[in-house]
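Appendix C reproduces, verbatim, an entry submitted by the partner laboratory led by Prof. M.T., so that reviewers can inspect both the input and the predicted structure.
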Amino acid sequence: YPLTGTACVSLVYTDHGVFAPGPDGVRVLETYGITVAQLQDRLSVDLLP
């Protein structure tokens, strides 16, 4: 889906976890069956603990 606005969501829910995007980066709130380190290896964004 195309990006239609900046900062238009406060939480992102996926099969791997719950994330809170913010001005400092993407904070990991919860993970499901995967560690934050494993997620970081798969993503091209820096994750905040």
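The chain has a mean pLDDT of 87. Additional entries are available on request from the coordinating office.
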